[in-house]
Amino acid sequence: KNKGYAITTNAITRFGPLMNGLAEVVEPTGIAAGYRTIKEIKHNDVLVRITWNGTNSRIYRIEAAVWALKETVTSARCRDVISFHDGTNSILAWCFGADAAFRYSTDDLASFTASTFAGTSDNPKFFLNQQNNLSQPRVLFVVDPNALYFVTSLVNGSTVSTSSTIGGAGAQEYFTSLAQDDLGVVYAGKRH
Question: Can you give the pTM of this predicted structure?
Answer without folding.
Answer: 0.84
